[in-house]
Amino acid sequence: MSSSSVTESTTGAPAETGAANPTRRYGLGAVALAIVVGLLLGLAAGALIPRSQVPDDASPEAGFARDMSTHHQQAVAMGLIAFQQGSDADVRSIGVDIAASQQGEYGMMQGWLRSWELDPTGEQPRMAWMPDGESMVDGGLMPGMASTEEMERLRTAQGKELDILFLEMMIKHHIGGIHMVDALLDQSDHELVTEAAQRMKNTQQKDLTNLRTALERLQG
Asked: Other CB atoms closer than 10 Å to residue 107's CB: what's the count?
């Protein structure tokens, strides 16, 4: 599933909460199954990297896989909150699509690390693989990531407040993620990793278009 599947309400018409409700369309059980299947498929895809291309523990590829995995885990959590608690049909649809796609990518990156026989967390500080990356970590948070307090506010928000807060937080989150992808692309010549990273960037750029469109409608 891709977050490009936004309902017609992004054109400016009020979002309908009846038939367009993704909870009715998918069901919570189906969404949970999709998340698990996405993880397993991602792990399988990550394990297909040729053994001749094995980065070392301090490589940009290993650092990126570890840090972006953490980044993606938060996006999955945010997306599921939007899906389960959002009041706007587009917000729920975008949330579930982001959760599913990023869970699959998380599995893929964890599959890389397993294939490379590297620790999934490692001992390097956050963003140490990126030039001046450690200086970009603010209070332990990588670019675009929400604080514990922000996540709690999202969990407890309701109605339109939750919808807008999710969109604003996810826009910031994706911009930070794209910045990390660009840093990896500048440093790595690992063909399969860079191809996967570019796909992540392309997906997140499409997500940003949908997120901004929905935010403009709700705020307008």
From this structure: 25
